[in-house]
Design a protein that fits this description.
Elements: E1 4-6, E2 9-11, H1 61-66, E3 70-75, E4 81-86, E5 93-98, E6 105-106, E7 114-119, E8 125-130, E9 139-144, E10 151-152, E11 159-166, E12 172-179, E13 186-191, E14 197-201, E15 208-216, E16 221-228, E17 234-240, E18 246-250, E19 257-262, E20 268-273, E21 281-286, E22 291-294, E23 301-307, E24 313-320, E25 323-330, E26 336-338, E27 345-348, E28 361-368, E29 371-379, E30 385-387, E31 403-410, E32 416-423, E33 433-437, H2 453-459, E34 464-469, H3 478-481, H4 491-505, E35 509-519, H5 521-532, E36 539-543, H6 549-555, H7 558-568, H8 575-581, E37 594-599, H9 608-620, E38 624-629, H10 639-657
Parallel strand pairs: 33-34, 33-35, 35-36, 36-37, 37-38
Antiparallel strand pairs: 1-2, 3-4, 4-5, 5-6, 7-8, 8-9, 9-10, 11-12, 12-13, 13-14, 15-16, 16-17, 17-18, 19-20, 20-21, 21-22, 23-24, 24-25, 25-26, 27-28, 28-29, 29-30, 31-32, 32-34
């Protein structure tokens, strides 16, 4: 059952209230100068084009939701099968397919979301993680690789276990653990027969978290990464087992050393670091010689992956302005060989490795603006790629789905902002068309040019959709990522408004028919935009967004509290910052109608945030609807809720941007 809130009471039917006006609030922060990011040309708004396509039509919401998602994946230990998490039945359960492609076989059946796949070393079992109702308190489970009863190994409701790395011999492993009541993430050993865990490294700082990377030296030691909550620090450590004695391998204050793999002898470590550059670059660190070798320089973000079984090849990805390429690197020469994949989001798949056990094939995932994510197996000898999944339903023909373009515009202070623009077909350049801004979550995140159900649904109905990567986003260097510190809803909001102006200057968009929507931090951006600049947007739809940083701090997960401190400072010492950046400070100025959608068991943005919004808007008479989805966390995993929420967003904008009648 879904509930809507109005005047502090819960009703089964949404209630629309009478709209009230409010005065506009201006920004208070001064212009501080352009924020550094990779150099790139500024786009001409007139360069946006709406292609002609007589076959184009509104994409049914059901077709988007019945297109299966692609979650965690893993090779079977003999290389004959691929395990994957997908929503074939409307739930994120585990299936397996032949590695050459073929009909999927279901291994698990659960109402809960599953992930974190890891086959046992002998291939008989598949380990995975599962939580309850989106609460993110994951346990580790096991299921026979050929099918059978599922077993919960850990059964620890107050302790989360993730990131399993199996030790040589296959009977034990290392995991990250987190108590529900604490912020820090620790390292532990796990007995894979009994599920019992034993602490290995106990972190005293609630802002720091540990993650195992790989076993080395025949299981005598473990390589691990220790990082902070807001991705501005990462260190590489060698951990003796079972003593837990820790030795720092790479680490400097305010510097990222993100290790992704290490050779079995512990000598070579694959690392992405921003040391000396402010941008992540890929390299190989020799722990014996204490020396670096670097890949060819690029202004864009690089990430390392895994070594091949023979240690001669390393996987690397490059994120260039929201599009990613996947390459194989010769460890001896550091020469790169890009894989033959179309533009979009290309990444290496697989649990502990994307390489097949014999090293002859590699598993990759591809997603494009007009193609849902699919798995492909690349033959490393011939370079040929073979698609082994078809996640999209047949009606989602790429030629009839809206296309994207990455544009760059200047914001209020000259800072370059990149954005993904999804253009509908068959629009007239007459300044009458609606548009929707779609900021991403995080804020430590990035919109990338892959398949986006919301953008596709809206663009196929005539809305120009822009996903701006505002200051604070990842992918554009550390100075850009840090530029929103204690300025949430300040410069980043002005970046969104500059994106709206770019669309208006294209000649397509009516400035009075622009909406805004997003989830998590995108929901926050929706709220702060409507509240702080009430004349800019005609309607908003926020999904699990933040209205009040104080109450968010008090009620969210302990780890998330540390993330908030990294963005805003201490809630006591920096009280004025929390007030100035909270939409609740300005919410009584909201004019535009607001839709709020919220998971009932969200630990990141608890339901109280949506309740605060609904209560205030009901009091001042601003039109609003609020819907809670039972047994959902941060994001909606169940198909029926995905369909319902997307339908509501479309209907909301149709009513308030196009003047359509409410959907019955």
């Amino acid at each position: 059952m879904r509930y809507s809130t109005s005047s502090g009471r819960y009703r089964q039917i949404p209630r629309v209230l009478i709209m009230a006006s409010a005065s506009m609030l201006l920004f208070g922060s001064p212009v501080s100068g352009q924020v550094a990011s990779p150099d790139r040309p500024v786009s001409d708004p007139a360069g946006l084009e709406s292609p002609v396509n007589p076959e184009a039509a509104a994409v049914p919401v059901e077709d988007l939701s019945y297109s299966r998602t692609l979650g965690a994946t893993a090779w079977s230990r003999d290389g004959k099968e691929i395990f994957l998490v997908t929503s074939l039945t409307g739930r994120n359960n585990i299936w397996k397919i032949p590695s050459t492609g073929g009909w999927p076989v279901q291994l698990t059946r659960s109402e809960e979301r599953q992930g974190g796949l890891m086959p046992s070393l002998d291939g008989s079992l598949l380990y995975f993680t599962e939580d309850v109702g989106g609460d993110e308190q994951f346990d580790i489970f096991a299921v026979p690789a050929n099918g059978g009863a599922v077993r919960n190994l850990t059964r620890t409701p107050e302790l989360r276990e993730t990131s399993l790395v199996i030790a040589p011999g296959g009977t034990t492993g290392a995991v990250s653990t987190k108590l529900r009541s604490e912020g820090q993430v620790n390292l532990a050993l796990i007995d894979l027969a009994t599920g019992q865990t034993m602490p290995l490294v106990t972190e005293p700082d609630p802002a720091l978290r540990w993650r195992p990377i790989a076993w080395i030296e025949d299981g005598k030691a473990l390589m691990a990464v220790r990082s902070n909550a807001n991705s501005t620090l990462a260190e590489v450590w060698r951990i003796e087992v079972p003593s837990g004695k820790a030795q720092l391998i790479l680490g400097k204050p305010g510097t990222i050393y993100e290790a992704s793999d290490v050779t079995a002898d512990g000598r070579l470590v694959a690392v992405a670091t921003n040391e000396g550059t402010g941008q992540l670059r890929a390299g190989i660190y020799d722990t014996s010689a204490k020396s670096w070798r670097w890949l060819a320089p690029t202004p864009w973000e690089q990430s390392t992956g895994t070594f091949s079984p023979d240690g001669k090849t390393l996987t690397v990805t490059r994120n260039e302005d929201g599009r990613t390429t996947a390459s194989l690197v010769d460890v001896a020469t550091l020469q790169e060989r890009p894989l033959p994949l179309p533009p979009g989001i290309n990444s290496f798949a697989g649990a502990d490795t994307p390489f097949s056990p014999d090293g002859g094939r590699i598993l990759v995932a591809h997603s494009g603006a007009d193609r849902p994510s699919d798995l492909q197996v690349v033959d490393l000898a011939t370079g040929s790629a073979n698609a082994v999944t078809a996640m999209g339903v047949a009606s989602l023909k790429p030629e009839n789905l809206p296309k994207t373009r990455i544009v760059t515009y200047k914001s209020f202070d000259g800072t370059l902002i990149s954005a993904i623009v999804t253009m509908p077909f068959n629009l007239k350049r007459d300044g009458t068309n609606p548009a929707v801004m779609l900021p991403h979550g995080g804020p430590t995140g990035q919109s990338r040019d892959g398949f986006n159900r919301t953008a596709t649904a809206l663009a196929s109905r005539g809305y120009i959709v822009m996903q701006p990567n505002v200051r604070g986003s990842t992918g554009y260097g550390q100075p850009f990522q840090n530029a929103n510190y204690q300025d949430l809803g300040g410069g980043d909001l002005r970046d969104v408004i500059a994106g709206k102006q770019f669309l208006v200057e294209s000649g397509y968009v009516d400035p009075d028919k622009v909406g805004i929507t997003g989830g998590s931090y995108g929901g926050y951006m929706t709220l702060i935009a409507l509240a702080k600049t009430p004349d800019e947007f005609a309607a908003g739809a926020q999904l699990f967004g933040i209205i009040n940083w104080f109450s968010m701090y008090e009620t969210s997960d302990a780890l998330l509290r540390q993330y908030l401190i990294s963005l805003l400072g201490d809630p006591v010492k920096d009280r004025k910052v929390y007030e100035a950046t909270s939409p609740i400070t300005y919410i009584r100025n909201i004019k535009a109608p607001l839709l709020s959608l919220q998971g009932d068991r969200d630990i990141r943005v608890p339901r109280g945030q949506a309740e605060e919004v609904a209560a205030i808007l009901a009091e001042i008479g601003t039109p609003n609807e609020t819907v809670f989805y039972p047994a959902e966390g941060h994001g909606f995993a169940k198909r029926e809720n995905q369909i319902d929420s997307l339908r509501r967003v479309i209907d909301w904008f149709d009513r308030h941007l196009k003047g359509a009648e409410p959907r019955p």
